[in-house]
Amino acid sequence: MSSTLPLHMYIRPLILEDAHDVSELESRGFPPEERASSETIAFRLTVCPELCSGLFIREVEGQEVKGETLIGHILGTKIPGANDSNRQAFITLESMGKVHDEASSTVAIHSVVISPEHQKKNLATLLLTDYIQKLSNQEVGQRIVIIAHEPLVPFYERIGFQAVGENESVKKDPAFGKAKWCDMVRELVKEEYES
Ligand SMILES: CC(C)(COP(=O)(O)OP(=O)(O)OC[C@H]1O[C@@H](n2cnc3c(N)ncnc32)[C@H](O)[C@@H]1OP(=O)(O)O)[C@@H](O)C(=O)NCCC(=O)NCCS
Q1: Which of 24, 71, 120 has most ligand 1 atoms within 8 Å of CB, for mutation?
Q2: How far is the CA of 2 from the centre of ligand 1 (A)?
Q3: How far does residue 25's CA lie from ligand 1's centre (Å)?
Q4: Structural domain includes residue 2
Q5: pTM of the entire predicted model
Q6: Is residue 128 in some structural domain?
Q7: CB-based pocket (< 6 A), ligand 1
Q8: Residue 107 falls inside a structural domain
Q9: Rounded distance, CA 161 to CA 80, Å?
């Protein structure tokens, strides 16, 4: 598998200057009704770039770096807690828009995309694992939530997410409601290092 991996790969937080490339990649990953708009992408990259992660290939000619190409991304925000403090917060139709609550302890992943020509090389697994590890150790929040199409539930389970049932909010939307969406949650636990 490693022989097919792109050379010169790296992961870094996304910034507003990446918004155009993120929009392009988003439109390659999702049908129009599921993808984030350019405005929503710009909002996320402005208010919480630390929750938005990009996988890049650096183009190198000899010693010279010619540029970089975005081949994968994760877009997240923190979503407001449930009204009832005993209930866990999950993604809603509203929180998929321009919503970020800095005080919340729940990070919502709204999008995971790998460009089609680089899929099935473990890159989404790599990007998600890096994202979870960084957020855990930076103590950014207590948990990550995501909504997944039913067929992708086993994929997220392998990365440590637990399925907790069907998402109640998105099924009210005629476009989203066509498929079954599952709420999934991954607790963030800081790794302890020996000093
Ligand atoms: C889902 C996605 C991010 C996976 O990226 P990837 O780099 O190919 O993933 P990995 O190589 O790390 O893992 C591959 C595994 O993902 C799962 N998977 C990917 N696409 C799948 C699909 N359409 N149905 C079911 N499982 C799927 C499989 O378990 C697959 O393992 P397999 O190759 O042994 O079958 C990528 O297919 C993508 O960008 N899709 C479009 C956007 C999307 O649907 N995003 C997820 C919802 S936010």
Answers
A1: 120
A2: 18
A3: 15
A4: no
A5: 0.93
A6: yes
A7: 29-30, 111-114, 119-125, 151-152, 155
A8: yes
A9: 20
Half-sphere exposure of residue 61: CA atoms within 13 angstroms, side-chain side: 2
How far, in Å, CA of 18 to CA of 13, rounded? Answer: 10
Q: In total, how many domains does the chain have?
A: 1
Q: Residue 113 pairs with which residues in a beta bridge?
A: 73
Q: Let me know if residue 194 belongs to a domain.
A: no
Which residue of 152, 159, 183 sits with most ligand 1 atoms within 8 Å of its CB, as the best mutation to test the pocket?
A: 152
In degrees and rounded to multiples of 5, residue 127 shows phi and psi of -65, -40
Q: What is the domain range of residue 125?
A: 9-187
**Which CATH number belongs to the domain containing residue 40 in this structure?**
3.40.630.30
Phi, psi for residue 111 in degrees, rounded to 5: -155, 135
pLDDT in tens, the chain (195 residues): 444 777 789 999 999 999 999 999 999 999 998 999 999 999 999 999 999 999 999 988 888 888 999 999 999 999 998 665 657 899 999 999 999 999 999 999 999 999 999 999 999 999 999 999 999 999 899 999 999 999 999 999 999 999 999 999 988 888 777 889 999 999 999 877 766
Integer CA distances (angstroms), 161 to 12, 22, 60, 175, in order: 23, 25, 36, 25
